[in-house]
Amino acid sequence: MGRVEGKVAFVTGAARGQGRSHAVRLASEGADIIAADICRDIDTVTYPLARPDDLKETARLVEEQGRRIVAREADVRSAEQLRTVLEDGVRELGRLDVVVAQAGILPMGGKRELQAWSDVIDVNLIGTINAVQAALPHLRKGASVIATGSVAAFMARTIEPTPGADPGGAGYSFAKRVLGDYIHEVARQLAPRGMRANAVHPTNVDTAMLQNEVMYRTFRPDLEDPGREEAELGFKSQQAMDVPYIEPMDISNAVLFLASDEARYITGMQLRVDAGGYLKMHQFHI
């Protein structure tokens, strides 16, 4: 028996990166998957987003685990699209037990700065709320809601290099802070009904959101045209442990735990998977 055997999990941002990793990890432990991803670019995001073939690959990897999947292109900014995906998925798979609101963007370094602020709030915060609220009517006792935050939610400053210089970076940090509060309140509402809600807050993760030219320049402003190798020296500044980033599977393992009955009494948690990033930002002296 797998750790989530017989459960059905809804994963947003599932076409690649952390979302794909979560879907496949949950499937490897017995869950069927409802997967959603926009599968097209958003104008203010300077790195390419997933494509339809990426979502097909996620479906193939889930099926390779011997599990069923309902995969649909959908924009988390549209509550109606997410409701349709869930209705299709629950109709085919029979139930819904786990929500993993993973979809997110980091629109830094673009030209339409105020639009970048709006887009990151719409995707990272409102998109998470849309995913959770679309799922609520389908959830039952024992269900687990998991949202992906960020260690940026705990930063005293935003991730933009200069305050006010890049609204997309500021919006990212703001969205993740508010998301933590939202999940805390969701947990309060679900607890009397025997359901749980938690947030997972990663540090740098080795995905396209981190591995792009804008982030390289953000972490290495001392260089005119830094590459990945130079940027990784800067990436290390964010963690207390001597690593530039963690892997998607490190977050997936935390998601699996929170989705499983092993965590049946854990709710309202702000779980940091950050290689000591929070410790580095908040150095207490005793």
How is this structure best described in words?
The chain is of the alpha/beta class and 286 residues long. The protein has one domain (8-205, 248-276): NAD(P)-binding Rossmann-like Domain (Rossmann fold). Helix content is 42%, strand content 13%. The protein is built from 9 helices and 7 strands. It has helices at 17-28, 52-64, 79-93, 113-135, 167-190, 213-219, 228-235, 248-259, 277-281; strands at residues 8-12, 32-37, 69-73, 98-101, 144-148, 196-202, 270-273. A 7-stranded parallel beta sheet has the order 3-2-1-4-5-6-7, with helices on both faces. Helix 1 runs parallel beside helix 2 (52-64), helix 1 packs across helix 8 (248-259) and helix 6 packs across helix 7 (228-235). The longest helix has 24 residues, at 167-190. It is globular. The protein starts with 7 loop residues before the first strand and ends in a 5-residue tail after the last helix.
